[in-house]
Amino acid sequence: MGSEAAQGRRQAEWQQMTAADVDAVLAVADVVHPAFPEDRAVLAERFALHPEGCLVLRAGDGAVIGYTLTHPWAADTVPPLNTLLGRLPDAEVYYIHDLALLPAARGLRAGNAAVRLLEAHARALGLSRMALVAVNNSGGFWSAQGFEQVSSPQWAQKLASYGDDAAYMVKAV
Fold first, then answer.
1. Domains held by the chain: number
2. CA distances to 87, 126, 159 from 90, in Å
3. Domain CATH code at residue 159
4. In this predicted model, what pLDDT tens digit does every residue of 12-59 receive, in sequence order?
5. Domain span at 134
6. Torsions phi, psi of 172, nearest 5?
7. 134 forms bridges with which residues in the sheet?
8. For residues 117 and 107, what is the distance between their CA atoms, to the nearest angstrom?
9. 76-114 pLDDT, tens per residue?
């Protein structure tokens, strides 16, 4: 990669996702989460159900190098992976379905910036808690953002499809 392309990636910013970004989001998801594949229709539906909670990290050259899919959700439950929801339940928490970043986003502190944007959105919706399932050994990142793991026997079964290291985490906002 030339220095001009590298410079373009260093100037990334979070922007509102559009329907035209779904294929780029799917491409990022395929790289970042190969063990948790989700159909294009599932990602498109998450966007359609709560577009204001979906962001893309767009590099200076226009490439999508990260994304967030988030939405209001019921407390103490997790949406099933790769499943259409149909509608969102009554909002009790603000759920981070995914925050994914390509290696090109490393060093940009884009994850931290995304969490701050999502916290502000949760507060604007009147929600006092955020929730997520940490996968791929990401629990340390989420702990550093103020999320705490919820430990109880009920979560083992609920998180079975998310992998052995999956942890349900919450944060007050």
1. 1
2. 10, 13, 21
3. 3.40.630.30
4. 999 999 999 999 999 999 999 998 999 999 999 999 999 999 999 999
5. 3-172
6. -80, 140
7. 167
8. 18
9. 889 888 999 999 999 999 999 999 999 999 899 999 999
